[in-house]
Amino acid sequence: MKKIISTKEAPAAVGPYSQAVEVNGTLYISGQIPLDPATGKLISGGISEQTEQVLNNIGAILKAAGYTFGDVVKSTCFLKDISDFRAMNEVYSRFYSTNQPARSAYAVKDIPMGALIEIETIAMK
Amino acid sequence: MKRSVFSLFSLLIVAALSCADNSGDKPSGKRVVTLGNTPASRPYSPAVEAGNLLFVSGQIAVDPETGKLIEGDIEEQTRQVLKNLVRVIEAAGYNKENVVKCTVLMTDIAHYQIMNKIYMEFFPSDQPARAAYAVKDLPMGALIEIEAVAVR
């Protein structure tokens, strides 16, 4: 029933979880951090670059599962620093320009590997 | 002539590709719920429905009239957040009895009891499943944010 999604176009998991799991037309994408899929390392760059990398990773997983950004119904954005909120929004709105998903966003204490941002995603079709 | 046909054809391909790429405008049975005064600058929808599921965006204690965070302590902010939540849920054609899961984020875990007291007023029985925890910071300096999932 459930299908494990795995692609080399997005970073490998850094722990005991799948990149995404699909079940009954719903895709649960694990929280993505700005890792380079080729090296598995955190990219260098500030919040804009990191947000872009995170969304590219999400795009690669959506594609591997046969979904698109248009199928995303819910995002949760975790920031290291709430003052990155605007800059994150600016990049985020380029990836989600219409029919935007529901979203929650807030700052947490720490994100794995010292990342500035993590985004988890639910898509449905 | 040949050249202009070729150009037109290239243009169509580019247009088709950019449509395919900008997949944001292909809602796959998903319905975006809007409210009259949602600022266009916000890159998210108040809620999204897919099938019989409703995902409500995290709500903070913003006054819907002014778009500004209300002045108030945790009690007042919790009340405003829940009012905003119900407003979005009802705009989507759902009601609060349809809520199956809430996530409550606070900037101070010491606010837990007061939040619960107000929360109980809104969800007095058959309460949704819930997770609640303290986070580092919330947008606009809010004290509390609540997101919800509803099913009908």
Characterization of the model:
The complex is a heterodimer of chains A (125) and B (152). The model of chain A has no long low-confidence stretch (mean pLDDT 97). By secondary structure, chain A is of the alpha+beta class. Chain A has helices spanning 47-65, 85-95; strands at residues 3-5, 20-23, 26-32, 72-79, 102-107, 117-124. Chain B has 152 residues and is an alpha+beta fold. Helices cover 32% and strands 24% of the residues of chain B. Chain B contains three helices and six strands, in the order αβββαβαββ. In chain B, strands 1-2-3-6-4-5 form a six-stranded mixed sheet, covered by helices on one side. In chain B, helix 2 packs parallel to helix 3 (112-122). The longest helix of chain B has 20 residues, at 2-21. Classes of the chains: A alpha+beta (125), B alpha+beta (152). The A-B interface holds A 68-71, 73-76, 81-82, 85, 89, 92-93, 95-109, 122, 124-125 and B 22-30, 32, 42-48, 50-51, 53, 55-58, 103, 105, 135-139, 145, 147.
Name the descriptors.
heterodimer; A: 125 residues; alpha+beta; 60s Ribosomal Protein L30, Chain: A; six-stranded mixed β-sheet; globular; B: 152 residues; 3 helices; 6 strands; disordered N terminus
Quick synopsis:
The complex is a heterodimer of chains A (125) and B (152). Chain A contains two helices and six strands.
What is the topology?
The complex is a heterodimer of chains A (125) and B (152).
Chain A: E1 3-5, E2 20-23, E3 26-32, H1 47-65, E4 72-79, H2 85-95, E5 102-107, E6 117-124
Parallel strand pairs in A: 4-5
Antiparallel strand pairs in A: 1-2, 2-3, 3-6, 4-6
Helix pairs in contact in A: 1-2
Chain B: H1 2-21, E1 30-33, E2 47-50, E3 53-59, H2 74-91, E4 99-106, H3 112-122, E5 129-134, E6 144-151
Parallel strand pairs in B: 4-5
Antiparallel strand pairs in B: 1-2, 2-3, 3-6, 4-6
Helix pairs in contact in B: 2-3
How can the largest sheet of chain B be summarized? Answer: 6 strands, mixed
| Low-pLDDT ranges of chain A | none
Please provide the ordered H/E string of secondary-structure elements of chain B. HEEEHEHEE
Structural class of chain A: alpha+beta
Number of β-strand runs of chain A: 6
Estimated helix fraction of chain B: 25-40%
Strand order of the largest sheet of chain A: 1-2-3-6-4-5
Q: Provide the number of structural domains of chain A.
A: 1
Q: What form of chain A results from the Cα inertia axes?
A: globular
Beta-strand percentage range of chain A: 25-35%
